[in-house]
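Re: that chain you flagged

S.,

Sorry for the slow reply, it's been a week of failed gels. I finally had a moment to sit down with the sequence you sent. For the record, here it is as I used it:
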Amino acid sequence: MTSPTSSRAQLSRPPLERMLKIHDELRRGALINCTKLMQTLEVSRKTVVRDIAFMRDRLDLPIEFDVQIQAYRYTQPVNAFPTVHMTEGELLALLVAQRALQQYRGTPFHRQLEVAFEKLAGGLRDRISFSPADELRAVSFKNIGLGRTDLAVFNTLSSAVLRQEEIVFDYRKPGVAKKSSRRVRPYHLANRENSWYLIGFDVERGGLRTFALPRIGAVALTKENFARPADFSPEKFFANALGVLGGTGDYQVVIRFTSAVAERVREREWHESQEMRDLPGGGLELKLRLGALMEVEQWILGWGAAAEVIGPEELRASLRKTVAALRKVYGS
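Prediction finished late last night. Pasting the structure tokens below so you have them in one place:
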């Protein structure tokens, strides 16, 4: 059974928040000692002593213990809690990153990161004076199709990943109405193409699988721990995927783009394996090494008649079927 002391320790404030609380108490002249701080912060005496030592020795705050009043005090006025030194350019970059967060509104990290940025910018307010609103008027970010994620599901999954604890959940595959029960060893959470995915070892199916978080429900921890393989890495897992879905195949995809879109293709990095070659007349040839073809087919269709697949033949054949189906939908 978990003791009250251990429960308080698990729920205690982060170190910076504790030190800010101590700083506020000292600034207003409150009589605080280890016993009172232990009760206020719900931490051990050792933690209080360590926090105060850090504030005194590393942050150069003028703290001393006054034996006459049996309390800590500042020996001289302190206007503000020490913050990191940043140049105007660095703060501007930070605020640009904050603006970029808007594209992730509704995802689990948005509010926490927003608060963190507010604290950083607020701590630098007295050191740097310029108007972020004026500087960032010309900066904006927009992504289409942001994935929706249930915060409770995300929190349970992230906890399981960190603790390396098996989970069970209901999962509905695309195009299938009925959900199936899965038991998974969760290895990693990844944000790919504006959506969250869980990569884990499916115990019953005996292999690594990718699960879209919006299709996961009724998540439960099992209390069964596992050891994540030392050779697993998300970079390796997604190495042969254009976006999310990798595979066991080995396809060299060759696509030729007309001059109308060649510049747009040339301006971006689509995959780590990409090779580009200029063609006569302003066109462009793009080569990719992928493990599956479904995602790249959907991507190619987005370029319409400006993209032609040269190989492999199975990709050309699949596109011919898709084009025939589109002709039935839209007419000849």
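What I noticed first: Residues 300 and 307 are 7 Å apart (CA to CA).

Talk soon,
D.
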